[in-house]
Amino acid sequence: MKQSYKTILNLNNRCNVKHTLLIDLHSLKNAYCGLWTFTCEFGNELIRQIDFDKWDVTFLVPENHPFTSDKVHYKTLKWWHRFTSLLWRYDVVHATAQNSPYIRRKNRHTKYVVTIHDLNFLYEKRSFKMQRYLSKYQHNIKGIDHIVCISWFTEQDVLQYLQIGKSKHSVIYHGLTLPGGSSSLAAGSVAESIKDKPYLFDISTIMRKKNILILVEMMRFLPDMNLVVAGKVVHQDYYEEIVQAIAMYELKDRVLMLGSVTEEEKWWLYEHCTAFVFPSLAEGFGLPPLDAMQVGKPVFASRSTSIPEICGEMAFYWDILEGQAMAQVVQSNLANTTAPQCNAKLLKAYTQKYNWNRCINQYMDVYEKLLK
């Protein structure tokens, strides 16, 4: 049976029959986070670049998805999909996030690809929860033909903590998308809130691993600067701690928590900030610092997990995550206008290596090699 299936694949290749590809984009259910941004941009870029004469493409998506192309088939997510063999009819199935529940039932005639974004729970969870997450991820990657990691850091975590068996593995960096049009569209309520104040900017989901609280403490030692934080609140208790700290340090006039913002507002905030600050404790990649560099803004970041790999020598780093020490790093380096990390032209040039053309080409190479 296995040999006959290979024969069919070879005949399909000779007769120019299209291969069938399912892209699992279930992460679009969770808006306003880095994974949503990657999933949305991945889908759009795949539509732009894939050869539809060779591939018949289906997107597995939630009901409210952002795609409009009529070149792609759309299969709306249903809760019962995870319990059926409905996805077995495809030559290649790609789960764009490692927590997909739709790749647990596998067909030996289908090739499976999964993108692993991070194992951040290793740095966040207590030991018993860590083991539970490891077991879940281990089950998900069982029988996967190719594992793609989004950074070398993530790949090292995968190789150290998961048993990947005969699965092939590689690293494919994300691409970056520049804002389209003018961000002046956002100069409404957000601009009014900030007025003409110089400000440091951070955009993150509000959760403990993003370490926003340390930025509030840092602001005590930067009396001439303001802080603007945008992002969806995920951990309400942590958000309340941040609000309490703002009140305790009497920083209500200098620290602004915006919550979720639109794409236009996001880019307006990047373009008008003095610098971008990113004290995150756990990242698999780290898109926001690169977005800041795209518009020529200096970046101050922690040295945690994948961040130094992605930002390279073009970011300023905090070696000590303590308010006063962080403030000193910001003050001294913003004053050093000749530093490469403050050179808008060099910052923009650095981000060019993170491009979607290369990213999608590398994924297409993975799909094609699996069918040979």
Give me some keywords for this one.
alpha/beta, seven-stranded parallel beta sheet, 38% helix, 372 residues
Concise overview:
With 372 residues, the chain is of the alpha/beta class. It has helices spanning 2-14, 34-49, 121-124, 127-141, 152-161, 189-194, 212-219, 236-248, 263-272, 287-294, 307-311, 323-334, 344-350, 356-370; strands spanning 19-24, 55-61, 73-76, 92-95, 111-116, 146-149, 168-171, 199-203, 226-230, 255-259, 275-278, 299-302, 316-318.
What does this molecule look like?
The chain starts with a helix and ends with a helix. The model has no long low-confidence stretch (mean pLDDT 89). The longest helix has 16 residues. The strands form 2 sheets. Strands 3-2-1-4-5-6-7 form a 7-stranded parallel beta sheet. Helix 7 packs across helix 12. The chain is of the alpha/beta class and 372 residues long. The protein is globular, with a radius of gyration of 22 Å. It has 14 helices and 13 strands.
What structural class should be given to the helix and strand makeup?
alpha/beta
With strands numbered from the N-terminus, the spatial order across the biggest sheet is: 3-2-1-4-5-6-7
How would you state the average pLDDT, rounded?
89
**SSE succession:** HEHEEEEHHEHEHEHEHEHEHEHEHHH
Number of strands: 13
- Largest sheet descriptor: 7 strands, parallel
Using the alpha-carbon principal axes, give the shape: globular
Low-pLDDT parts are none
Helix content: 25-40%
Strand content bin: 15-25%
- CA-CA gap between termini: 17 Å
Give me the number of helical elements: 14
Integer-rounded radius of gyration: 22 Å
